[in-house]
């Protein structure tokens, strides 16, 4: 399934700190494993980059770089259960440095302590407190929240673009990737059920903002750049969403990354494949900002 030695080394290093069973552990244990794993991959911030913690709309955030006319709103992944300002600090710092745009990272509330819609409520509050146009970017659960934000804003001020990185968008599980990649490294299909239960309990998901593929109408949303990892149960959510956006008249591009697993952004310094993908993501962010 994955033959690239750089990617295989990344997977081995990740699983040594964050074993598959961590996804089925308690939230506290899962976070302990996840934080330790992220710390192993965390890169130094670019020298001279100003970083400050502040709140937007009452939500804790971290700001990277001086204010610019266009901002980047970054929403981290982690299945809505793990992750925060520290886990994605280096990614946000590199986005700000590479694009020249101020990046604002959102520390939204986590499940299961805070069930849906606390997460999207926090993202909306930050968006409303921003005083300028922005490109919204997210990975994994954060990508779903980015798309959910665009849905919530339908008919109002949209982001300049939405950049969705290996998103989980509420696919029904019938797509091939859910079975082909059921035992994929770093994220298995069974793990998706654990995270869904933590976020929603055992009831049905009825809010399209939590599962944007459920939305009956995607017209009027921000243009999209959607990146999937080929060895990921969530892979097929990306082309399905892009097809729906295009059918609704929204400009959308899909890029699928061969031999890369879910969570590969942490491999951007050790894997040529992940590095090229991150460069494409940076270019998409800059492109949306420039058109704005």
TrEMBL record:
Q: Give the Pfam families listed for this entry.
A: Abhydrolase_3 (PF07859)
Domain Alpha/beta hydrolase fold-3, residue spans: 72-265
Domain of life, per UniProt, equals: Bacteria
Q: Which UniProt keywords apply?
A: Hydrolase
One GO MF term on file is: hydrolase activity
What InterPro entries is this protein classified in? Answer: AB_hydrolase_3 (IPR013094), AB_hydrolase_fold (IPR029058), GDXG_lipolytic_enzyme (IPR050300)
Name of this chain's protein: Alpha/beta hydrolase
Q: Which organism is it from?
A: Paenirhodobacter huangdaonensis
């Amino acid at each position: 399934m994955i033959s690239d030695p750089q990617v295989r080394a990344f997977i081995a290093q990740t699983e040594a700190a964050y074993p598959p069973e961590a996804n089925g552990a308690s939230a506290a244990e899962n976070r302990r494993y996840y934080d330790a794993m992220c710390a192993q991959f965390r890169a130094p911030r670019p020298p001279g980059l100003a970083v400050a913690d502040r709140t937007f709309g009452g939500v804790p955030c971290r700001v990277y770089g001086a204010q610019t006319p266009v901002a980047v709103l970054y929403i981290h992944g982690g299945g809505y259960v793990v992750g925060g300002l520290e886990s994605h600090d280096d990614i946000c710092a590199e986005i700000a440095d590479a694009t020249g745009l101020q990046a604002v990272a959102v520390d939204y509330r986590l499940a299961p302590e805070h069930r849906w819609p606390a997460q999207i409520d926090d993202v909306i509050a930050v968006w409303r407190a921003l005083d300028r146009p922005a490109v919204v970017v997210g990975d994994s659960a954060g990508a779903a929240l980015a798309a959910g934000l665009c849905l919530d804003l339908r008919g109002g001020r949209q982001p300049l673009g939405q950049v969705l990185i290996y998103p989980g968008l509420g696919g029904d599980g019938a797509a091939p990737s859910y079975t082909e990649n059921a035992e994929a490294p770093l994220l298995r299909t069974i793990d998706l059920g654990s995270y869904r239960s933590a976020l929603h309990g055992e009831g049905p998901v009825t809010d399209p903002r939590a599962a944007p593929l459920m939305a009956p109408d995607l017209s009027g949303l921000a243009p999209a750049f959607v990146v999937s990892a080929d060895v990921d149960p969530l892979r097929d959510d990306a082309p399905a969403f892009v097809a729906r956006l295009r059918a609704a008249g929204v400009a959308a591009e899909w890029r699928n990354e061969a031999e890369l697993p879910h969570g590969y952004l942490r491999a951007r310094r050790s894997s040529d494949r992940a590095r090229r993908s991150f460069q494409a993501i940076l270019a998409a962010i800059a492109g949306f900002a420039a058109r704005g």
